[in-house]
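Milestone 3.1: sequence recovery, worked example.
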């Protein structure tokens, strides 16, 4: 655990406990401090006060493997300027509020909060299993003149997005068919609008599935 020492309002000076300093390469305790570096990390707030850690990071020479490295930090990624506890807090906040609100509450920038949330969602959903998917819906979304259309496929039982393709029509669904085949998914029904591109490719790739036309488009 790090040793904490308040130095002024909103700032805490932090140094690693001598007994927990290990070689980051071979994990040996036979190390010699070879200089140091100060870094600051934003961490979770105390009440309404934003808090930053000023961390004394020793540079180590390992007598066991000969490596010269900075000591590892168990509470923060050395490439980031915030702690892991603050990162987890941001992820929880983004479930119930906007990115702008989370940024204001934590003292992080809008871009940093967005990157944290985006990284979390990518890690969680990049390898979604389709083995238990039986009913899906396909539709396109218009994103404006520059980005134009994307095609979204959703699991109708869970509400989870299982595929996003660039553009619209059958070309936007190429990656979906490979994943369904690899997972041996048993698709029983597909809901879509009356676009010929979607209807034709669904009947070709999923001949045993029922094709259901979107009620909204039928009424329209």
């Amino acid at each position: 655990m790090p040793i904490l020492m308040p130095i002024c309002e909103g700032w805490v000076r932090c140094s690693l406990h001598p007994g927990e300093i290990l070689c980051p390469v071979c994990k040996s305790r036979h190390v010699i401090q070879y200089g140091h570096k100060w870094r600051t990390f934003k961490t979770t707030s105390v009440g309404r006060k934003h808090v930053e850690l000023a961390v004394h990071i020793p540079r180590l020479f390992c007598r066991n493997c000969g490596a010269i490295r900075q000591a590892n930090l168990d509470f923060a990624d050395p490439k980031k300027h915030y702690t892991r506890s603050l990162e987890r807090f941001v992820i929880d906040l983004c479930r119930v509020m906007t990115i702008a609100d989370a940024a204001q509450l934590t003292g992080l920038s809008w871009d940093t909060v967005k990157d944290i949330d985006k990284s979390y969602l990518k890690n969680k959903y990049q390898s979604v299993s389709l083995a238990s998917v039986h009913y899906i819906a396909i539709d396109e979304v218009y994103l404006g003149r520059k980005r134009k259309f994307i095609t979204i496929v959703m699991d109708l039982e869970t509400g989870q997005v299982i595929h996003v393709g660039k553009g619209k029509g059958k070309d936007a669904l190429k990656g979906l068919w490979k994943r369904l085949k690899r997972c041996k998914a048993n698709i029983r029904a597909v809901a879509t609008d009356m676009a010929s591109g979607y209807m034709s490719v669904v009947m070709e790739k999923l001949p045993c599935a029922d094709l259901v036309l979107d009620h909204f488009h039928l009424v329209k």
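The chain has six helices and ten strands. Strands lie at 2-8, 11-16, 31-46, 49-62, 68-70, 135-142, 149-155, 161-166, 189-192, 210-213.
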